Amino acid sequence: MVSNKNFNELPNLNFGMQLKQLQCCIHPTIVSNILDHYMRRPQDEPNVVGTLLGSVDGQMVDLQTCFSVPADTLIEGKEQKLIVDKDYLEKMLKFHRRVNPKEDIIGFYMSGTEINSQVLAIFKMFQEIISKQKNNSLGGNPLLLLIDPTMQNNRLSIKILSIVTASIVPVFAECAFSFATKDYEKSGLDILFFGQEHYDTMAILQQRN
Asked: In this structure, are residues 56 and 137 in contact, taking their beta carbons and an 8 Å threshold?
């Protein structure tokens, strides 16, 4: 069980700063898998959580695949607790290592637009899992893919975040990213990211600096 009782309400001051050291490449199937996970969630669950798998080569991070992790939200008075099935997560990690040993755990995804106490609690859990891995390419800190499946303003918002400091108030910085796409996939990404009114594919295919 992951509880957010150790985290007070934090101001959402973590966006806008970019971490230029890391360049991320996202395979489009990750986005479609997350959206499918969100659509299939129980109606009383506001958010979904999952694991990101891929590889790290120096400053390049290749996010290749993901899988969902069962999670339940419990409300106790004014406090919300996010219960994640950690046993399921670890079993799935072992399965993926047998299928593709080159894919390591890179971080996690979570639906939403803000870094709140629940996100920080999940971050801490994945931080503990990654710190136990032999190939600890990211210094023991998971990446966070924060996605808004509700498509506010008729566009899909994605941010990849890496922790900069874990002091009293954790601070996250945005990582530049691009998509590994083929020509016939570009128009579909346009519609998802920019809505029906925009068709500038290069804006999302190029790395964001």
From this structure: yes
What mean pLDDT is predicted for residues 63-77? 86
Contact (CB, 8 A) for 111 and 151: no
3-class SS at 42?
coil
What pTM was computed for the model? 0.77
Please say if the pLDDT value at position 2 is more than 50.
no
What is the identity of the amino acid at 101? Answer: P
Q: Name the band, by pLDDT with cuts 50, 70 and 90, for residue 64.
A: very high
CB 169 within 8 A of CB 159: no
Its CATH class, for the domain covering 2-205, is alpha beta
Task: Judge whether residue 51 has pLDDT over 80.
Answer: yes
Give Cα separations from 148 to 5, 60, 120 (angstroms). 24, 24, 17
Question: How many other CB atoms sit within 10 Å of the CB of residue 29?
Answer: 12
Question: Using alpha carbons only, what angle is made at residue 137 by residues 131 and 141, rounded to the nearest 5 degrees?
Answer: 45
What are the strands of the beta sheet with 71-76, ordered from one edge?
2-3, 79-84, 71-76
Single-letter code of the amino acid located at 14: N
Question: Is the distance from CB of 94 to CB of 103 less than 8 angstroms?
Answer: no
Using alpha carbons only, give the angle 87, 136, 160 rounded to the nearest 5 degrees. 80
